[in-house]
Write a structure and sequence with these properties.
The structure holds 2 protein chains of 2 kinds. Chain A is α/β, with parallel strands linked by helices. Chain A contains 9 helices and 21 strands. In chain A, strands 1, 2, 5, 6, 7, 8 and 21 form a 7-stranded mixed beta sheet that branches. A 5-stranded parallel beta sheet of chain A has the order 10-17-11-12-13. A 3-stranded antiparallel beta sheet of chain A has the order 14-15-16, with no helix packed on it. In chain A, strand 11, helix 4 and strand 12 form a beta-alpha-beta unit. In chain A, helix 3 crosses helix 4 and helix 4 runs parallel beside helix 5. Chain A starts with a strand and ends in a 13-residue tail after the last helix. By secondary structure, chain B is α/β, with parallel strands linked by helices. Chain B has 3 domains: about 170 residues, FAD/NAD(P)-binding domain, CATH 3.50.50.60; about 55 residues, no CATH class; about 80 residues, D-Amino Acid Oxidase, subunit A, domain 2 (D-Amino Acid Oxidase, Chain A, domain 2, 2-Layer Sandwich), CATH 3.30.9.10. Helix content of chain B is about 30%, strand content about 25%. In chain B, strands 1, 2, 8, 9, 10, 11, 17 and 18 form an 8-stranded mixed beta sheet that branches. In chain B, strands 5-6-4-13 form a 4-stranded mixed beta sheet. A 4-stranded antiparallel beta sheet of chain B has the order 14-15-12-16, with helices on one face. In chain B, helix 1 runs parallel beside helix 9. The longest helix of chain B has 18 residues. The chains are: A alpha/beta, B alpha/beta.
Chain lengths: ~350, ~350
């Protein structure tokens, strides 16, 4: 099997990249391990506030539907339920449908593998009923299953606030939110106010000490200024943040840099969202992007420049579009968190001087 | 950190750490191990870790392996549990023509006291029912088995440290000078002085040799290994290329590639390896492979260990070999004897570096 552009991952970044490339007449293939397109957008029921200027505010799942429609209107080949599991010596990509493995030769690859949630470890953290906050949201919004009746959320990020509100609206009693820092981390004060209006207590300077239960979580101890508070419950949602999924980049022997604000180790890339390999582009969470709006923009940039590299659009046009899209990123990121924007600029400037280049040399 | 040592060992892998442990167990005398990364970061941490004697040639090399394998039960008593299992080893063959070769091997081994049985098809299937029923037979030796490589190296290291051995890790040696009766070892983190210097750099031996103008002819060989999901215990023996670990994972690996120090994995070889495994044990077709990894192995030019003192440079020693897991207890013991007594209880002349044309200058 052969294709012009292989896109790994059908989340928001992968889908915008697919639209950009396929609409310019290129032969595009998406590989997606789940059975549906849209990635994490599918279970986002909140209105996404900070979208690029050319998008109307939308709920996450509505945006997923729209992107899916756009992709379906093109001739993109969608391999759902397929995974990239390695690479052949001649550079072909090995794709598995869980029963067989077949090679696919791609002229360009856009990696949009997203990020994985990180858990927080504490004694008995593996008891059933303790899950990442994203898992709780997926149960509630995608599978329409309540994760439990009485929950505590460990973490106070914007995402944690969203999920706290959604759990409450769904009928789960959120007994507390626990934050180890001195202040709530969420930047969206309106959401924080909504949470406090719902009567959800937020404990700062606090951390989870341990969980207890037989066969499933029954209570947890929260430590606050050396005082222990025991809360009976059946669900604990932990928000340990996310880290980019990098396996494919390692396999492709791309170089890496480290930016704490962008999620830690991420592939080195230039303003065209190209890695140090001429045929490998990237977008979205895998590039250390976590806000929904910026995800979409990076997918567009990667798509435009992959198209340019295949001659489907002129260099001048690609540069003009890329520059104006970087303006969008700047607007969105400086508004959300200037530290993230500054880290992104540093990362792109380091393109010629990657920190990690020989990860496969023993 | 001290700068003055009796003995410095360069390389903290299974061989370097075994030498450090055995030497310190005989005489606690200011020993330092230098590692450019960390023990287990390289070859020792990326192996299937068979303790394997059978079908190694020539027979005197197999004998050397047997002596080492026999030390494992005793070793575990001294340094702690290393998950050593003497499972016995099976090498299946699929052609009647191979039976003659197997019988010859068995005969050669018998002369030096290694017992190998040549099994019929029925005997092989009775011992290991999951083997391919098309098997023609197998060679079997009871001395073979396997070990947990992480535990083994870690236990060597802990036992050595208990005996006062110091480790300096992420510390690459950049220069070696001989000054009168001392070696000056310059590393990234400082300069050390010692009387005895042992080069145990494994795959990096050639590079280490250059620092003392000696050619240590060790090449790199890449092996790609597949790991399955944990399966119920079903393999009774260590089978050439396939073994099941304590927790049920099956490790599969046959490959040998010349790719220098590149530890990447390739799907071509992963598929070839999986097919090979299914050919040996058809039931593995249903197993899920959860990951694959590569290890770079040390391979002396003629396949045999390079051990002992280096002619022309007093008190400079080398220990470099393939099959470091199997050979580590014996080589650790013999190198300690050589350094402390000047002679070894099992002769190692055959393994001297002098068999090669090694002096660069």
């Amino acid at each position: 099997m052969e294709t012009d552009v292989l896109i790994i991952g059908a989340g928001p970044a992968g889908l915008t990249a697919a639209v950009e490339t396929a609409s310019r007449g290129l032969d595009v293939t998406i590989v997606e391990e789940s059975l549906s397109m849209g990635g994490q957008l599918i279970q986002q029921t909140q209105v996404l506030g900070s979208l690029p200027s050319f998008y109307q505010p939308k709920r996450g799942f509505e945006l997923a539907q729209r992107l899916r429609k756009l992709v379906e209107d093109t001739s993109v080949r969608c391999l759902l339920g397929h995974r990239v599991i390695g690479f052949y010596k001649d550079g072909s990509v090995g794709i598995s449908d869980e029963a067989n493995v077949f090679p696919l030769k791609a002229k360009k690859i856009i990696v949009a593998t997203g990020a994985a949630e990180k858990a927080i470890a504490f004694p008995k953290w593996t008891l059933p009923g303790i899950m990442t906050i994203g898992a709780a949201q997926t149960l509630l919004n995608r599978d329409f299953v309540l994760p439990g009746k009485h929950a505590v959320i460990i973490g106070t990020s914007d995402f944690a606030m969203d999920v706290a509100l959604q759990l409450s609206e769904g009928g789960v009693q959120v007994k507390a939110m626990v934050e180890k820092s001195q202040t709530v981390l969420a930047r969206d004060t309106e959401k924080v106010n909504q949470v406090s209006k719902m009567g959800i207590p937020v404990h700062v300077n606090s951390s989870i000490k341990e969980a207890r239960g037989i066969g499933r979580v029954e209570e947890i101890d929260i430590e606050q200024r050396e005082q222990i508070m025991t809360i009976p419950l059946d669900t604990v949602c932990v928000d340990g943040g996310r880290s980019p999924i990098l396996d494919v980049f390692y396999q492709l022997e791309c170089s890496f840099g480290y930016q704490r604000e962008l999620g830690g180790w991420i592939p080195q890339y230039n303003p065209f969202f190209r890695t140090d390999r001429e045929d490998v582009f990237l977008a979205g969470n895998a590039a250390g992007v976590s806000s929904q709006g910026v995800l979409l923009v990076t997918g567009i940039i990667a798509g435009i420049n992959a198209s340019e590299s295949l001659g489907a659009l002129s260099k001048e046009e690609a540069e003009i579009k890329t520059t104006s899209l970087w303006k969008e990123i700047e607007t969105l990121e400086t508004k959300l968190d200037p530290d993230v924007w500054n880290a992104r600029i540093r990362h792109v400037q380091n393109y010629e001087h990657p920190v990690l280049t020989d990860q496969f040399i023993s | 950190m001290d700068t003055n040592y009796e003995t410095i060992i360069i390389g903290g892998g299974v061989l370097g750490s075994s030498i450090a442990y055995h030497l310190s167990d005989c005489k606690k005398d200011r020993i330092l191990v230098l590692d450019q990364k960390f023990p287990l970061a390289g070859t020792s941490g990326s192996t299937q870790a068979w303790i394997w004697v059978h079908n190694k040639t020539p027979s005197w090399y197999a004998e050397f392996n047997m002596y080492s394998a026999e030390l494992f039960p005793y070793l575990a008593k001294k340094i702690g549990d290393v998950e050593y299992k003497q499972t016995g080893g099976l090498s299946p063959f699929f052609n009647e023509a191979d039976r003659e070769k197997a019988l010859q091997l068995a005969k050669a081994y018998k002369e030096i006291g290694i017992k190998i049985k040549v099994l019929s098809r029925e005997e092989a299937l009775e011992k290991e029912p999951s083997l391919n029923p098309n098997v023609a037979g197998a060679t079997y030796s009871s001395i073979d088995g396997n070990v947990n490589p992480f535990r083994l190296v870690d236990r060597y290291m802990r036992a050595a440290k208990k005996n006062g051995v110091q480790y300096s890790t992420f510390n690459k040696v950049t220069e070696i000078q001989k000054l009168h009766d001392k070696f000056i070892v310059v590393s990234e983190k400082g300069t050390f002085v010692c009387k005895n210097l042992i080069l145990a750099g494994g795959t990096w031996s050639r590079e280490l040799g250059k620092l003392v103008d000696i050619n240590i002819p060790v090449n790199q060989v890449r092996g790609q290994i597949l790991v399955t999901e944990p399966l119920k215990p079903f393999l009774n023996y260590t089978i050439s290329g396939v073994r099941q670990t304590f927790n049920g994972e099956v490790l599969i690996g046959y490959s040998m590639e010349k790719e220098g120090f590149n530890r990447a994995t390739t799907l071509d070889l992963i598929q070839e390896t999986a097919n090979m495994a299914v050919h040996y044990i058809p039931g593995l077709r249903k197993a899920k492979v959860v990951r694959a990894f590569s290890g770079i192995r040390a391979m002396p030019e003629d396949g045999l260990p390079i051990l002992g003192s280096i002619p022309g440079i007093d008190r400079l020693y080398v220990a470099a070999t393939h099959s470091g897991m199997t050979l580590s207890p014996l080589i650790g013991t013999l190198m300690s004897e050589l350094i402390l007594d000047g002679e070894t209880s099992v002769p190692i002349d055959r393994y001297s570096i002098s068999r090669f044309d090694s002096l660069v200058r």
